[in-house]
Amino acid sequence: MIIDIHGHYTTAPAPLGQWRDAQVAALGDPLRAPDPAGPVIGDDEIRESIETNQLRLMDERGIDVTVFSPRASFMAHHIGDFATSAAWARICNDLCHRVSELYPDRFVPGAMLPQSPGVDPATVVPEIERAVLELGAVTVNLNPDPSGGHWTAPPLTDRSWYPVWEKLVELDVPAMVHVSTSCNPAFHTTGAHYLNADTTAFMQLLTGDLFADFPGLRLVIPHGGGAVPYHWGRFRGLAQALGRPEPEESLLRNVFFDTCVYHQPGIDLLLQVMPVENVLFASEMVGAVRGVDPRTGHHFDDTRRYVEKAGLTPEDLAAVEERNARRVYPRLDARLTARGR
């Protein structure tokens, strides 16, 4: 089985975006507020949006299952207040749940969180519980920068985050550390902010002792870990200079990286530097990089091609493409096992 642990509903039917536009417009004009129940989207609209996009590509590329969460750039936690984000998260999470109900053998839900700048992170705990226990989410996307590129939030090692970590450990659910839209013009959302955030999150973890307090917490850093695997010597050297233990000892029991790296040399280096057990297959298809590479004739985000040309042994390849995901996402494994897979 090939499990893609990083998919977003980037092709959601138009009423979802229209509802969000109305919600944002109502921040300045309450009379324009949309129906709090959310947009009206039929099952056939969902099927059309999925079958012509993600499901078609999964079939073409031989991907069996995708962990499917709301569109990352749509989270936009910097817009409005906590109530704004809470309503938006509920609607987006419900929609991904509906996808998983329509295609239970192909999609497993993930969830976004109702974060808001300056708001206590503990306020997201009820939506974590609802998404996991009621909607069947196997992971959550956690934004380390709800301000949208201005980095006003405390580091992930700050005690204000502890209620979130406690709940994730209690539910045995990993978090993918994933920012959203940058509203800072200095940082392009997908070309700079996403990769900056991956690197920043890792450095925050390196300088703290989060996993001493939460040894069972699992965090996935997407997009190949930002700069981390490609500057591993820098991070090892910084750890030494700061009097910290080797990152392999202090972090790699709890931190994992996905394969959303869109060229062969990048995947090769990721798999050479990081232990195989720390790398999980992912593509983020129909995501930030949707075009065809003129040098290869294949889509940049067709990451299975890179992984399977990286020279892994059959056992290591199976670990990256399936077994690591089932270990890091135990609720995913339980769901698949219950369906005889």
Automatic annotation (TrEMBL):
<keyword id="KW-0456">Lyase</keyword>
<feature type="domain" description="Amidohydrolase-related">
    <location>
        <begin position="3"/>
        <end position="330"/>
    </location>
</feature>
<dbReference type="Pfam" id="PF04909">
    <property type="entry name" value="Amidohydro_2"/>
</dbReference>
<dbReference type="InterPro" id="IPR032465">
    <property type="entry name" value="ACMSD"/>
</dbReference>
<protein>
    <submittedName>
        <fullName>Amidohydrolase family protein</fullName>
    </submittedName>
</protein>
<dbReference type="InterPro" id="IPR006680">
    <property type="entry name" value="Amidohydro-rel"/>
</dbReference>
<dbReference type="InterPro" id="IPR032466">
    <property type="entry name" value="Metal_Hydrolase"/>
</dbReference>
